[in-house]
Amino acid sequence: MAIRTDAVLVVVLACAAGCLGARLSHPAEHVIAGQPAASYSLSAAQADPEHAFRAFMAAHGRSYGPGEFAKRLAVFRSNVHFILQHNSQNAGYELSLNQFADLTYEEFSKTYLGLLPLGANNSYHFRYADAAVPKSVDWVAKGAVTGVKNQLACGSCWAFSATGAVEGINYLKTGKLVSLSEQELVDCDTEKDMGCGGGLMDYAFEFIIKNGGLDTEKDYAYWSVGTFCNKLREGRTVVSIDGYEDVPVNSEAALAKAVANQPVSVAICASPALQFYTSGVFGGASCTGLNHGVLAVGLDEDEAGSPYWLVKNSWGGGWGEQGYFRMVRNVPEKEGHLGIAMAASYPTKSSPNPKDTPEPSTTFLRQLKSARRKNLVDPSLLPVVAIAGRPNVGKSAIYNRLVGRKIALVYNTPETHVTRDYREGVARLGDLSFVAIDTSGLEPQSEEHSIQARTVRLTASVLQRSDAVLLVLDARAGVLPSDHGVVAWLRAHNPARLLLVANKAEGRGRNEAPDDLMSEATRLGLGVPVAVSAETGEGFVDLYGALQPLVDSAAEARRQAAAAPAPSTALPLGSALLNSGSSTAGEPGAATAEEEPGTLKMAIVGLPNVGKSTLGNRLLGRGRWLTGPEPGLTRDSVAATFEWEGRQIELVDTAGLVRSIRLQRDEAGEAVATQARQQAERMWNLAHLVVIVADAHKAAADCGGLSKREIMLAGSVVHEGRCLLVVLNKLDALPDGAARQQAMREVEAQLERQLPEAVGTPCLGISALTGAGVERLMPAACAAYEVWAKRVPTARLNRWLLQVLEEYRGTAQGRQVMRIRYVTQVSVRPPTFAAFVSGTVPFTEGNTKFLLNALRKHFSFPGVPMRLLIRLRKREAKHRHVKRSKR
């Protein structure tokens, strides 16, 4: 086995993303790529370039401001001219418009290609030295190559090249084609390789050998960015190799012998023409500045007898010849065309693959969750980075990228805000760990008592504890007068370093914002903006470079202030999910009802404008959530933690639940209101205890207690098995004590009538504004939780069953109870019991309710939902064959 020990090539492609992005599932077969859409084909672009460019923008999701549109159109015209000029020369291969058509080659190089020096090749052994080379080899046709994949905006071509070679040798040795995980290499192979920052195929082979193999693409799916290493999947190896060897350098003959026996990882120099390659045998001008990793999967000759290489790329099936390209072979240059013979290697395999590795055990997963909850990284020692800017510039989208989950509500609403309450969570950008805070859009000149003015004051309190501020601009719209006002306000309220970020800059190179934005941004006095796209993940490597000195210095200052030893800057597995205050139900890392018993998750729900946020602030003892007289003020469901009598409490303030027919009345549009409602429902569905807040004044005025929607909400909570607590807020608005007591009695009676599944639900009267009665809420909540989580021993249950049998002997209910052999509790939260019954006749619903009520009364389960499962004895059917006589 040969190992390259000197400084070696690191192949970089598209180092444009450094945070979590959307998953990409690869096809198992080749993606059949059609020609460019007729609306922006070469002929259409030649006839009407602007119309074709607009069609190109629509097809690829591009959006440019007026100044940038003119620049991109000029680039598009230039590329059309370059392609037409080349195709007119009959060079043996064709170029065509593709997804890179609005980029110059310099921009393409900065965004998608990188260059580091090549080290020495150490070919100690070449097993194919005496191998014969047939006229034609096609490993794709032989079934040894998986479908074309797409690395997107991530410099992970080295990983795709390495996995392709391992997939090939595994097929040759086992007869099974298994698509392997590039993401595992990007995430976990960090000793020498750099994830989306580039890598080397030889280093990837070394990692696979050391790790014992790789997981599958299906189980460790590809993201277009580097994330934390998933240790659960890293330990599950499916395909292994024993070693790897380097092909003798600068020898196409040696490379041909290797390719004749297996797919081979190769490095090439991606030239300007390769940017638009579409068909034919690629030749012409060559280069040797290696910057891209691909997979050589065959060799052959064309109709004229000219030899070529068949190469698999990782730019998707829409590029080239269905994701592949053919390239001239046996050229005079010793390096081969595009340097293909300069750095080639292949894995070796003789041992069988590891035996089926079991999935991570439930016990281990619980231990991992417990370790996460123990705060392996103390958030108080992490630097704080606030994300600020005027409304609708993409602050929440950047926040979602940084924390790795789609938590904050995101919607394009130019006329108003989406975010109102700030949201914070632990973020990871490369090896940087910090607390990111998403703030509301800043409008410093708002009227004193408006919602915007209150959000500005809330943002000011956040900035007081921030170590750095990302000031976000809209790269499409440019610098507006309101941006100047935001900068002036930030400088007055936060002495921390301001870092300028230009969002919505899709298709840009590193540190490259549009020219008109660059000139306008310099007038802000904050330097050159970092061009990023929160939507695609581009530019986050540049953001890492800009943030690193700020975050590192702030982290060191916090550690010194806390007199704590300096921990590693890299977060442990799952650390991006450590801040429970940013978890959202239904998302990766969101909390479940099986959490640590000492932590109580409470969700505050109710109709709009009943005082939910005011109650939350009162319980926390600080103004965490925005409050005011306007209904529907809260949009995001945001959590915060506090401690009550030594117990950890996680409190979630949710948006007011509005009927579907009224969603269009939301000033930000129906879509935002729908998202807010869905998020609120997810949050309370997974809470331990749900606090329904109602308006006591309305309950007394209606003379009927809770409204129909509030009763339906309570029923839904009980149906989901959550613990329930009803709070009548604004009790101070009622005229006297008699009216208050009457309102409480009406609500309690209403709950008993209409909610028999949770008889005894606690009902409290409070005033969140003045604090009256609030001190009774937490004791009641904890008491209800203890009942909800209570377990009754089986022996006690069956002694109770004998008592019921004795008490109801001779009655119809007693005869049904006599069928029960024994009762046991099968789970808690909610309390769930199973009764094992003889016979096959089902229990009636009335008898089931009778037993539940008896259980609730005898074992003291007031106010919590309960379940009773009837397990009937199964009898095998006896089939009798009757022989009939013939007549």
Automatic annotation (TrEMBL):
Lineage: Eukaryota, Viridiplantae, Chlorophyta, core chlorophytes, Trebouxiophyceae
MF term (GO), any: cysteine-type peptidase activity
Annotated keywords: Disulfide bond, GTP-binding, Hydrolase, Nucleotide-binding, Protease, Repeat, Ribosome biogenesis, Signal
Chain segments carrying region Disordered: 572-596
InterPro entries tied to this protein: GTP-bd, GTPase_Der, KH_dom-like, KH_dom-like_a/b, P-loop_NTPase, Papain-like_cys_pep_sf, Pept_asp_AS, Pept_cys_AS
Species whose genome carries this gene: Elliptochloris bilobata
Protein name (Swiss-Prot/TrEMBL): GTPase Der
Extent of the signal sequence: 1-21
Ranges of residues in domain Cathepsin propeptide inhibitor: 53-108
UniProt feature, compositional bias: Low complexity: 572-592
Alphabetical list of PANTHER family matching this protein: GTPASE DER
Family to which this protein belongs: Belongs to the TRAFAC class TrmE-Era-EngA-EngB-Septin-like GTPase superfamily. EngA (Der) GTPase family.
A GO biological process held by the record: ribosome biogenesis
Residues covered by the Peptidase C1A papain C-terminal domain: 133-348
